[in-house]
Amino acid sequence: MRVWNKSGKSFGFGSASVLLIAVFLFACAPKPVKPPAPPAIDTGDRLFETAERLYQSKNYDKALESYTAYYRSYPKRPLAAAALLKIGEIHTIDGKTELAREFLNRLIAEYPDSPFILDARIAVLATFYREGDYQQAIRAADGLPLDRLSDRQAVSLNSLLAEASIGLEAFSDAFYFFALALERAAEHEKPSLRNSLEDVLQRLDSIEMAALLDRIGNIEARALLLYQLAENRASEEMYEESIRLLTELTETFPGHALAPNAATRIDELKIKLLYGIEKGLYGRYSIGCLLPLSGPYALYGNRAFKGIELALNIFSSTPSNPSFNLIVKDTRSDPDRTQEAVAELHAENVAAILGPIAAAVPAAFEAQDRKIPILTWTQEDHIPLIGDYVFRNFITPKMQVDSLVEYAMGNLGYLRFAVLYPDEPYGTTYMNLFWDAVVAKGGQIVGAEAYDPGQTDFAEPIKKLAGLYYEVPEDLKPKPLPFEGVETKDGAGGPQVPKPIVDFDAVFIPDAPKKAGLVIPQLAYYDIVDVCLMGTNLWNSENLIQMAGQYAQGALIADGFFLDSNSEAIRSFARKFEEIYGEKPGFIEAIAYDTAMLVFEALGRPGIDSRPALRDELLKTRGYPGLTGLTSFDESGDCQKRLYLLRLKGNRFVEVESSR
What we know:
Structural class: alpha/beta
Number of helices: 25
Helix content: 40-55%
Strand order of the largest sheet: 2-1-3-4-5
């Protein structure tokens, strides 16, 4: 079986092919009709047999005379319809297509119950094709009862429709009709039809081929289509898709002539998928790292690298584990440089990419285009939706809010909440997420007030939150007591000061520690006490404790890493980190460590020998016991984490026992 490509072989659908299709059609017409042998053959039967002999010897003029004489002399006999069919076919061969249709339509009208009706309708279609009216030829097939066609009729009809489609340059339809003809063809007809399929296939692009797969079921032509589309996908470096198509071919059509070739191609493409290198040259797994080791985010890049390096040291210390080679690229926090670095890592055949911290979006698009699994550390919205090779393993605002609300409502029984937030993107983002999370769980937001992030006096938004800002109308004020306004010995008396309306169980303040450290004491000043204060992971800071610790006792936050956790894994990690680097690790080091370990462990499993296999293995991650909480990836590649819940107790945050 030959392998074809997108160029080269030319088509020959000219006058010669018109003659060929006509000959093919009429060769497939009903065999010479022999009437039952009567006791004595009469003149009519002899006349019809004479006409048939002349037709088979291609003496069409004499045959036409005999068929015409028979029809005129014996219009009531069953073979009169057969005579009209042959008259129509002879006129078509002679190019007298309008005259042919006249006789064929007469057959259809005068002999509606004749067994030759379907042949007549197909012959009408052939007359339009002979005229070059391809659209009308296709329309002539409307209403044909396809389920009643014999194999001979189905081959004739579908071959004509395919040729008409070629005339209209509708090559997808042509392939489809040739495929149907091949399925019903006799063995001696199949080689010609296969050649026609291969010729038409050269005119189709990958999009058209993919669409055809939805039209063509498990018939022989599908194998041809699968193989060519697989070759196209391979040339487009879509190796995974190519392997999928070839696998379908080998499993669905194991006896097809292309099946051995397909099996060989699968093995070849799997080698290419092995991170784009030849199997014999592959010695060590390579992992790319995109880190801002210089520029404005250099501090975070260097901290992340320490986490990755420690993960590599610990993983490699087990003799049975494979070795890995880290290829680190300095992104300089520049989007263009980050995109270039992805291309460089692709050229260096990395299995996956860890990072980046900044400029994650351009990196993700580039990695997706090159089919490299990339695990980003970013809060950019919807980044995993860029493609199926893009992952995120990072704490997000939604994770924090969901963890806080779930604990507050599920464990503490809180139902009513207030929000005091800075009027800037960070604050409004958290406010909206918090509001949505509370409502989704059946709670209520009873107040939400914004403040200018540049101010230091928060009296106005606090008073609004507590019902102290607006003057109470005179008619709603309580009547004074008899002694009100009279000075007493203990200084009591005088106008009554209104008390705040604290109709909420907790107040959420999504702001940085220094600003929250100014807001919290002013809440106490206006008697908003005995409510739970809730914040973001930024509150896990010495600044907040020093500025507002005495007023923030019991404050609740959610964080992705807690160095003082009782977890033995975290204690071991912290101990080894300090031994090597002489400093304590934080969230960046921990998330980089977790991400690297996830990839190392996935690649160390049997069968994970390609980028697609690694991607699929990562998507299976469920409840991974990382330092940054139990981690899973959803179907989009976004992480789901069970965060650490922390409460302020004294001068430090402590882990809420029921949160793990």
